[in-house]
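re: ur question from the group chat, yeah i did fold both. here u go
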Amino acid sequence: MGIRLIQLIAENPRVRLVAAIDRDGHPLLGRDAGEAAGIGRLNVPLETLAALEGRDGLDVVIDFSHPSATLELAKVCVRNGVALVVGTTGFEVEQRSALEAASATIPILISPNMSRAVNLLMRLVGEAAAALAGTADIEIVERHHHLKKDSPSGTALKLAEIASQASGADQLVHGREGLVGERKPNEIGVHAVRSGDCPGEHTVSFGLLGETLELSHRALNRDGFVRGAIDAARFLAGKPAGLYVMADVLDCKQ
């Protein structure tokens, strides 16, 4: 994601890359970010988090890292009055709470998926779940590359949350094994597949008697996530402190 962010920011005349950050000890620290991304020199070195302290010309930071790193980044952004776009997933409840608390000081946008199409999928899932409440069995299947750390994906969990709120089904079931008995009417099944280099697929199935409705999104590469993150950064620049979501960017609130 970091490499593709560098590449697509360089192509976009409405944004400018002023810093590129990675973990302490990364083998490419000090190298030009553009050269590391294969697009030529940008005169922006790959640096550690400390380099953001007091950095001039920095409006928004885009983060795709790890929950623990995100929390440290949020502290730096708070100290320096910099907005933060968070695409990282896998937060524990207390981590998410700490991140949201930082939004009292700076604008923070948090989304498990930055894709415009996925966020439209979320709206459609809510509409379908409400229309079919009490009559459809809702199952969610997500597929990602075998290096993904968290499971199920943050997007799948968000889809489940939306479907639950709209339908009233409030029991998440993560996979099934053995003699589990008949499917309960208040269940939402969530199933994670880890295979190859798949950047992300999500399908929400509404099973009725004699017919099935499926709503799906398949990412062919990471560009949709990256372009959405750039749109989010442009939206967030100059906004007052607060907690934002991609629906704010797309003007399609759930």
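okk and heres the other one u asked abt
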Amino acid sequence: MKKIIQFFKESYAELKKVVWPGRDDVISSVKVVIVSTVVVAAVLGLIDMLLLLGIRALF
């Protein structure tokens, strides 16, 4: 039981050291994720369309 209590004490102490991101940082990161997701989806969609057109042209 002492090890469990010690674990939680050390975990709490480590969480105090964490520098949490601010609201602006989070919003900026979310924007980057959304934009990169849309770009990757568009590129993959274009590749898929080109491959489909190529396969239809062959057969």
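fwiw on the second one: The chain has a mean pLDDT of 96. The longest helix spans residues 23-58. idk if thats what u expected
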